[in-house]
Amino acid sequence: MPREDRPVPDEVRGCKTRGDSNRPARPPATGAVAIGPLLIWPSIRTVWPIRNASWPYATKAPKVLPARVRATLAIAPEALGTAGLWSMHGGYVSSVRFVACREREPSWGYRGTVGKYTVFPFGFALVRRSACVPMEVWLDTEAAPHRLLVPVGRSAC
Fold first, then answer.
1. Angle at 90 between CA 23 and CA 113, to 5 degrees
2. Are the C-beta atoms of residues 114 and 64 closer than 8 Å to each other?
3. Could you write out the three-class secondary structure of 57-110?
4. Where do the DSSP E strands lie in 9-68?
5. Which neighbouring-strand residues pair with 96?
6. CA–CA separation, 21 vs 129, rounded Å?
7. What are the pLDDT digits (tens) for 92-146?
8. Which of the 8 DSSP states describes residue 47?
9. What's the helix, strand, coil split of the chain in %, to 5?
10. How far is CA 46 from the centre of its chain?
11. What is the spatial distance between Cα 59 and Cα 43, in angstroms, rounded to a whole number?
């Protein structure tokens, strides 16, 4: 069951925190996990052990958003303590706001603009090797969240 109120983001990732490549970003051809317009890279299905007593397992899984979209990704209340979202300031948090670049934002990695999609480097942590984690994506333009049971460290839920 989605929460009634929007979560207050623990941190904000703006356009300047994106990851540029040598060409405009594109969504993965297959296997992405979609929560509304937010795509999580298929690598979310593979985790590895890390040296962290609170979060012993982690994965790198970039986020992809269409240009100009503002979205908050949150671990659903019933899964707090099961999974965490990587914080750029160290550790893990329960909600992160992403602000995608505008299409004409100049790229850092190639001559041209960012284009239709913005990719954000990102990761997740778990207390177990795998879990079906309920996550929510809140958009500025919608009153209710998109909600999905996300397979972290596993192929399906």
1. 15
2. no
3. EEEECCEEEECCCEEEEEECHHHECCEEEECCCCCEECEEEEECCCCCCECCCC
4. 11-13, 33-35, 38-40, 48-49, 57-60, 63-66
5. 11, 73
6. 30
7. 999 999 999 999 999 998 899 999 999 999 999 999 999 999 999 999 989 999 9
8. -
9. 5, 40, 55
10. 15
11. 7
